[in-house]
Each structure stands twice: as structure tokens, then as C-alpha cells.
Amino acid sequence: MDNIEGEDKFGTAPVRDAYFGLCSTQLTGNLDNVNGFIHKNQYPAPMNALRSEWGSIGNLRFLVSSIGSVTANASLLGANVYNIFCVGMEAYACVEQDGYSASFIYRPPIYDGPLALNASVGYKFAEVPRITNDLWVLNLRTTLA
Amino acid sequence: MSYGTIIQQGRFVADGNVKVIQLRSDVDWMQVINFTEATAQNNGHGFRYSWYRGMALNDGFIEYHPAADHTAAIDTAVNAAVAGFKLVDTSVTTPSAPIAETAITDVVAPVISTATTTGISVGSIVRLSNDAGQPNTMGIDFQVGAITPGVNFTVAYNLANAPGAAGTGGFYRIIANDAIFYPKRRTVCNVTAAANAVITTTVSNGFTVGQKVRFKVPAVCGMIELDGLQGTVVATAAGSFTVDIDTTAFTAFAWPAIASVPFTPAEVIPVGEDSVVAPNGLGDATENQAYIGMILGAGVLSPAGSNTDVIYWVAGKSENL
Q: What is the least distance, in Å, from the CA of B250 to any CA of chain A?
């Protein structure tokens, strides 16, 4: 990911070229407490950050998700172990077959039957996410502090 | 039909073992008819079984012949102390609540002492934790080998060496279902020095011949030369597989010592495709092997019947009131 140059704004800091770290939202509190953590709103140009981005440390920019990977009770003391997948550029890709991707289809009741009694929801997709080079993906594992 | 009852049905010939029936959706009721026993007049043999949502695990109604004729009686599986119906959803991988263990032996196939072996069987997966006496086996999944009910169980596959000290008490959790996608990441517990290395994992690998794998071996595991190498699975066996990597000149593999805690265990990570499971090259890692289904118990009073019995079944889904 490209760097974000510094600007003359209070409380901001430049962000250098970085890898992405993909992790669970459960880690946000711990990330906040890491020495040197730059929160997204401290970026000189936060509009250049991704919506799911939480901030950066060194050359890692963290993207969080509520479905981030967690291995339950897998530490020595039985605590949850969080997997932070650190990925390089083009470490993975998504093949969209025939230019088609994913569709989430919701039909409200008026379109689902003559009596408008029931709604329906479904999905279909024709895409294949692939790891293009597994050596460019590292798993940084941690428990909560 | 989408809001009425969805019905599936099938037929199989019993082989004397439990029968797993994978269903295309969740199920609210199921009926099983043993065609062979319905025709026969065997005293004490069940011929019709039924299950409804809300019944206890392993329960179900049993209709059977109470005499060597065509008269019928009814009982339940729990009351008759026989195996009935078990509804399963293998996509649920949440570990169980912690169960106390009192000791772990210091041998290559550690024996875990516990007063509670309920819920585990040969092949189950357990995750150990909180045993300060043997910290180098904590947090790692192990497959269960032998079980002495209410006394202990033994891990199925040998470590490269004994952990170094006995466990003094901690917990284990039952991992009800394995990871749902093929192929799976596994912890390596031994690697032989051979022209074609044989890798033992703490849990059955489930790989197929042709699967590409890569090894992550930290220095604490000895065989650092294997770290980062990629190989192809050329043979598989229960708990182990063989790869086309020559390890004869490598440092011997070792299970990390207690002094090495904390450490990252050696792992085998599937990469690439071209396996039997996904021959088209795009299916690996998207092969969801989870299912919703019913496990039918076997026996003369159980729905999966006895060897050679012809069984018909029907399952459905209906609105619960």
C-alpha cells in the first residue's frame, strides 16, 4: 500500500509504505494501546484510508472485521488466539469469472408472491478468491492483553 | 413449497455400523423403517423409528416386535438404553466448556487422566490448556486414541519425543467438529529422516495424494532445513502422510522442550491445488466439507439396524409451533 505523506496538521503523522494486517475487531482496543500506533484519524489524509482500516504500526496497516479469524481457547492458558494475516501486494487475488462477481438478492414481499406475504433473500456468486503466493502471507498470532 | 414441508428420502443397506445421512437442509422430523425387520418376526427387533425436533440427543421412538410375531410395541431409545438419532451440524466448531484433567504422562503418546470422558470417543479432537506441568502441549489440538471411560484417554499419534515432564492438572476442551474446509492446516508432531519424509500430525491430516503442502518449522523443532520447503503428498495413512522431500541429511525433528515455551509449533500448510478433492485447480480451500445431518445408531433396536438390513428413511421440515 502506498505511503501517506505528512502534512502540516496538528496531531497527524505520515504513514509509510505498508503491508495490510487483516484482523478481528476484537483487537482494536489492544491496537490502540500499542506504542507508536497511529489511528486512522491521525493520518494526514484519512480519506485515503480504507473504510475498514483502524490504523497503522510501523509498516503494517490494520484492517478490522467482525469476522476476523479467531482460534478459540488455543493459548497455553486457554485464551482465544487472534490471527492477524499480514499480506503483501498481490499475495492474494479474486478471479471474477466472466466479469461476474457476487450478488446478494433481496426480494421484498410485493415481488415474491401475489399476496405479498413473504420476502426472500439469497446470494449467488461466480468468483474465486485465491492465494497467489503463500509466502507473502504471514500469520501474526496474539491473545488479548 | 418453500414454506411448507421439505421432504427428503432415501434407502440404504445396513452394514452394522452407525449411518450418517447428510441432509440438504435442517430437519424437524425423521422416520426410518427397517424393511427387513418389518417383514421378519424377530423378537426384540425394531422395525420403525421416528425422531422429532426437541428430542434429546441420541433419543427417538422405537417400534419393535415384543414377540416372535407381527405384534408391535413402542419404546424410546433413551429408555431402552440404545443408540437413537443424533442431529449434527458439523459447521459448529466452537470448543466445549473446559473439562478438568488431573495429570498428563511424560511419554511420546501422553495419557491424560480425567474423571470425565463423556463426549469423547476414539477420533475426537481435544485442545489442552492450563497445565503448568507440561506447558509444551498446551493450546494444541490432539486426536484421541484409546479411552478408558472415566479414567483417562491417550493421544492418537506419537510425538517425536516425550514432552519432558508430566502434567500436573489443567483442562481440555472437546473440539466438536473439525475445520470445515478442505484442506486443513495441521500441527506437525514428528518427521522422519527419509528419502520421502513421513510426517505425523497431531490430528489426522485428511490430505489426498497430489496435495501441495508447505512446512513451517521453527528452530525449536530441530529440523530447520524443512522450514519453508514445499512438497507434494505422495501417500497418506491414518495420522501421517508422505511427501517427496528428502530429509535424510536434515537435523532430527524434535517436539519443542518445555524451556522453549512459548513457541510456535511446526505446521504443515496446504498450498496450491491439483488434488483428488479439487482436480479443476480452483476448488481447494473452497471445498466446504461441513454438513447438517443425522447420525443413526446401529443395532437391533436402533435405526441403522443390523448388517444387511434394508432401511428406508424420510426426513422433513415443518413449522414449529
A: 22
- Neighboring chain B residues of A122 at a CB cutoff of 8 Å: none
Is residue A83 situated within a structural domain? Answer: yes
Structural domain including A85 reads 19-92+131-142
Tell whether the model's pLDDT for residue B226 goes beyond 80: yes
Asked if residue A3 is part of any domain, the answer here is no
Domain annotation for chain B: domains and CATH numbers:
6-90+291-317 (no CATH), 99-175 (2.40.30.180), 181-288 (2.40.30.180)
Task: Compute the nearest-CA separation of A27 from chain B (Å).
Answer: 20
How do residues A41-54 score in pLDDT, each as one tens digit? 888 777 778 889 99
Task: State whether the Cα torsion A80-A86-A90-A91 is positive or negative.
Answer: negative
Cell numbers of B214, please? 508447505
Q: How far, in Å, CA of B161 to CA of B102, rounded? A: 22
Q: Is the ipTM of this complex over 0.85?
A: no
| Chain B environment of A83 (Cβ under 8 Å) | none
Chains A, B: CB contacts within 8 A come to: 47
Query: Cell 504443515 appears where?
Result: B268
Residue of B300 and B182 predicted with greater confidence: B300
